[in-house]
Amino acid sequence: MSGQSTPNLYNDSSLLLRARKSDRDLVGYDIKEDKKPVYEVIEMGEVAKWDPNAKQNKRKWSLLQHKPYLALILCMLIFLGFIVNTRFQRKIPTRHQLFFNGTTYFDTTVILLSLDGFRNDYLDRKVTPNIENIGKRGISAEYMNPSFPSITFPNHWTLVTGLYPEAHGIVANEFYDPALGQYFIHKNESISSDPKWWKGEPIWITSKKQGKKSAVIMWPGSNVKIDSLSPDYYQPYAREITAQDKMDTVLNWLDLPMDERPQSISVYIPQIDQKGHGGGPNGGQLNSVLTDMDNAIGYLLKGLKQRNLDSHVHVVVVSDHGMAPSDPSRYIFYDKILSDESQSYLRPREAWPLLGLRPRDDAPEHIIDQIYHELQTYTETHDDVHFTFYRREEMPSRFHYNATERIAPIVIIPDVGYAIIRSTDKKAPKGIHGYDNLAPEMRAIFAATGPKISEHYGKGTRLSPFFNTELYAFLTTLLDLVPAPNNATLNGILK
Question: Transmembrane residues, as ranges (predicted)?
């Protein structure tokens, strides 16, 4: 069956509703000292109507003489407003209060921390008490499902845009775009920093467009200008910077004067993923890294408490995906499955550990059918097959992975723990992710605390599992922002 495609939200201009400046001005601060009205009264003067066929016939029209027409116009505006609100389901944020920590005022502030590669069941190891405490003070999910494929760059852009990879365009860490005639390579900044690859609106740009300052540390895609905008504060990727260094940067931002202080702060922390790849999820040194990262979060929480902000600032901790162990016995050599002729027409591989197969432009028209037939023959003649394969248009709809040609024409998905490589490739790492996003080994974490969370959920609330496409709308709810178009289904309130 052909998968059900997700509409490209950014090609539909009717969905690009944005809050006008006048709308945003109506979202004021509830400060007692400020008695100024948030609107101005417009006084209508008299308008003279000139009749060229009358002699000296000057008649003044007052506003009252237009009451029937004004009433009709008012009714039409109310009706149109209802239609727009129903059609787009976009709500203007409610009024909110500034928080006072005893020294200065703080606007609603959210600190988003992403621990790359933190598998959900790592919490069961009981070496991350600070992350557990965030859930006890606020909310935590049984687990959070990543989007497919469960790879770093696609999922980090999903977390901050609320869009499936097929909608935001970052469908893998490496892929080819036939419309552009170019490859996206995530580690090549001269390529990956080009805005043409990135669709959607990340939370730091949504914040900036609506008058809130934003700050980002090393988040994938944060070096890219979206709508010609960048975050107000930005720290580029640097492997040597520790997690605690990043927490110091966050606390320094919070110490800035109010008119300079960011309200949306996003922080990327890669060490757990790096160690998981090197030694696998059961490697001897992984617990030590988990402890180090948790200590850095504890350092941040202590810094917030010292500033009397522990009950005023929202802290949200997530991960992008989990991790599965692998070894050479689980390698699948696709050059032993496909014919030499088929391989001779292929472009370089796309995605990892799944495999995207795309013929070159000079390949014969039948080559995709030929490759598909060769894979089919292999699976029918071998008992121990550890992969599934699809034509792009036949991908199961639950993957949301067929609505763009950036996805290769044939996609091979290995079973969890397996890697599809050439027999001449170097060994795969001991820990791998990128599999079916519903696999237990790919589950991510979610925990959050803060004043709005306590008000809505109470303390220690355990949430049912949800997909990471919900996070962006949740963040906009915390920050009193109007979200850009996204694929969330829960309207910013996690269930």
Answer: 69-88
d(CA 257, CA 332) in angstroms, rounded, equals 57
pLDDT digits (tens, 9 = 90+) for 62-118: 434 455 555 566 656 665 554 444 333 444 444 456 877 777 778 899 999 999 999
Q: What is the pLDDT of residue 61?
A: 36
Whole-angstrom Cα distance, residue 435 to residue 147? 10
- The residue extents of the domains of the chain are 99-163+200-325+437-479, 331-428
Entry field: residues in the chain: 495
More confident residue, 434 or 76: 434
Q: Would you call 476 a catalytic residue per the annotation?
A: no
88 in the Ramachandran plot: left (φ > 0), alpha (ψ -120 to 50) or beta? alpha
Measured between alpha carbons, how far apart are the two ends of the chain, in Å? 31
Q: Where are the beta strands (DSSP E) in 322-478?
A: 324-325, 331-333, 355-357, 387-391, 410-414, 419-421, 431-432, 446-449, 461-463, 466-467
Kindly report the CATH number that applies to the domain delimited by 331-428. Answer: 3.30.1360.180
CATH topology of domain 99-163+200-325+437-479: Alkaline Phosphatase, subunit A (3.40.720)
CA distances from 422 to 25, 253, 419 (A): 58, 48, 10
Q: Which tens digit of pLDDT belongs to each residue from 225-242?
A: 999 999 999 999 998 999
Distances in whole angstroms, Cα of residue 165 to Cα of each of 68, 120, 155, 475? 52, 22, 7, 19
CA distance 315 to 445: 14
Residue 428 — pLDDT band, cuts 50, 70, 90?
Answer: confident
d(CA 287, CA 275): 10
pTM for this model (two decimals): 0.81
Which one from 109, 152, 158, 469 is the annotated catalytic residue?
152
At 304, list the tokens. Answer: 């917030």
Q: What's the average model confidence in pLDDT over 165-184?
A: 98
